[in-house]
Specification:
Oligomer: single chain
EC number: 3.1.3.12
Order of helices and strands: EHEHEEEHEEHEEHEHEEH
Strand order of the largest sheet: 5-4-3-2-1-10-11-12
CATH superfamily of the largest domain: HAD superfamily/HAD-like
Function: Removes the phosphate from trehalose 6-phosphate to produce free trehalose.
CATH class of the largest domain: Alpha Beta
Number of strands: 12
Family: Belongs to the trehalose phosphatase family.
Keywords: Hydrolase, Magnesium, Metal-binding
Shape: globular
Protein name: Trehalose 6-phosphate phosphatase
Helix content: 25-40%
Distance between the termini: 35 Å
CATH architecture of the largest domain: 3-Layer(aba) Sandwich
Structural class: alpha/beta
Length: about 270
């Protein structure tokens, strides 16, 4: 759900867009590939990134779907791969972390960087800003740094201005999500990660689906369209390149689980 305080709110786009229909049932077939965001899609967003609650059945559900799809499933998240595995355990699936900066094409395989590491001076600058503005939460990652202002909404405008200055000075991309502003190295975006996966033999020629909730997932929604696929927005309706919408995390779990149940019946 897009927060009304964010610069991506519906108010800036005029009238609220027409709602999207629910996606059709997920088909387990050789023509299907599936990409899943994490926060806001597979787990509900929490006050702190480390406070999310992972449903007990979720890791097994993800691995079972990946097996049924013969490996044509990948998690594509803004979190680092280490953070994902801390929360989910050592999942046997492909992953891209740090908005695509970290790329692991196969379960247990080598991790390839798709971007240069983020200079430490940028983390230091934003850490100083955070301390001077009430103690905002700074989340360093290998190829990006996120600053969460959920508990300090008054700091939003100054944080946005500081992030824009740093992005211009260092040639970074800035992403504004749900009460978080993130600076990322060039090459770190979910669309690039999807395109890289689609170049792999197991994904090539399939119709990809990307399931995500935030404006940072729009790069991926546009990417799957280029490959003949579709995006699925999770949460409240907003301007989006997605084709379909699911109401929330619980609806995503149900949609994924139903695919396994149908395959078992077949």
């Amino acid at each position: 759900m897009t927060d009304p305080s964010d610069d991506t709110s519906l108010a800036e786009h005029g009238a609220e867009p027409r709602d999207l229909p629910q996606p059709p049932p997920l088909r387990i077939s050789p023509q299907t590939s599936l990409f899943l965001d994490f926060d806001g899609t597979l787990v509900d967003i929490a006050d702190r990134p480390d406070a999310v609650v992972v449903a007990r059945q979720l890791p097994g559900l993800i691995e079972a779907l990946s097996q049924r799809l013969d490996g044509r499933l990948a998690l594509v998240s803004g979190r680092s791969l280490d953070a994902l595995e801390t929360l989910l355990g050592p999942l046997g699936v492909a992953m891209a972390g740090s908005h695509g900066g970290e790329f692991r094409p196969a379960a247990g395989g080598e991790v390839y960087p798709l971007a240069d590491p983020l200079p430490g001076s940028i983390v230091e600058d934003l850490t100083g800003f955070a301390l001077a503005n009430g103690g905002l939460l700074v989340e360093p990652k290998p190829f990006s740094v996120a600053v969460h202002y959920r508990h300090h909404p008054h700091a939003r405008d100054n944080l946005l201005a500081r992030a824009e200055d740093l992005a211009a000075m260092h040639g970074l991309k800035m992403k504004h999500g749900k009460q978080v502003i993130e600076l990322v190295m060039p090459g770190s975006d979910k669309g690039s990660a999807v395109a890289r996966f689609m170049d792999l033999p197991q994904f090539s020629g399939t119709a990809p689906l990307f399931v995500g909730d935030d404006v940072t997932d729009e790069d991926a929604f546009r990417a799957v369209i280029r490959f003949g696929g579709n995006g699925i927005l999770v949460g409240a309706m907003r301007p989006t390149a997605a084709t379909w919408r699911l109401a929330g995390v619980a609806a995503v779990h149900d949609w994924l689980a139903a695919a396994l149940e149908e395959k078992t019946k077949a």
